[in-house]
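Researcher: Here's a chain I'd like modeled. Treat it as a single chain, no partners, no ligands.
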Amino acid sequence: MDEIEKEKIAALPSQLLVTTICHPIEYAKVLIQLGYEPLAPRRSTTLFGRPAMILPNVFQYIKYIKKSDGFFGCYRGLSAKVLGLIASSQLTSKVIYACGIDLPEINDPPNIVTDEEPKIEDYYKLCRRDMVMHTASVIVSYPFHVVSVRMMASFIGKEEDYCSLFGTIAAIYRDDGILGFLHGIIPKLLGDLTCVAVTGILAYYVNKYLVKTKDLRYYTVPLLTFVTSTVTYPLVVVSTCMAVAGSSLKAGNPPLMPVYPSWQSCWRDLLRNKQHKRGSSLIFRYYIAPIAAMQ
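Model: Modeled as a single isolated chain. Structure tokens:
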């Protein structure tokens, strides 16, 4: 466990650098997930030549944000996200220790340094370890995630209460109390843990029956994680929406967002309107009219 903690702390500077560089893209993606489309779609064609309405890509979206708020406006919400990364790297292991959970020391992936066949027991231990660590990491960092998302969402309604880190924290506590910092955590956890569990199961069978070269097994889990995350992506959209739903933000209330009494109702509404994959594609973005708009 100490080695895992040391690895996370050692990787923190590079994570912070990548997060800072990529934040404008993530910022635009959050607004897209919330369904905010300030730029009108234009007529175009799909890759197969079919007529379609295409929305501006993520870089055109960022250009719009920059035109509205300037260069530094593209980094709205970054401070909370950075604090979340630091908290996750510093406190995840301490939370696990405090809960009295003993995690196994195991190579990732198992049997990578030997010629032994993959064993299901080893992959079960690895999956259990990763699920516990993901759960602890989300619990520690999620309040900062909510703060970051609401700061970014304030771009839509220009609410001054959410312009600063401490102002956003005060606004969330005023509107929703302590539980406001956990809005949307259930779909977030459900998506992450499903991704980890399914990836672990698939990794075992792929490494056992398809990938015989030890060096290639290093790439099995990252590749399968990418594939699995595309399946669980709608839960990310639900989590983002629930992080602002019902708040004092314009983005979280009608007419921009329906009233969602639960994350399940949000899931059903997005699915019914074919909006559950908003933000999954950042370059080729085709406009899909909500069902209500077509009636």
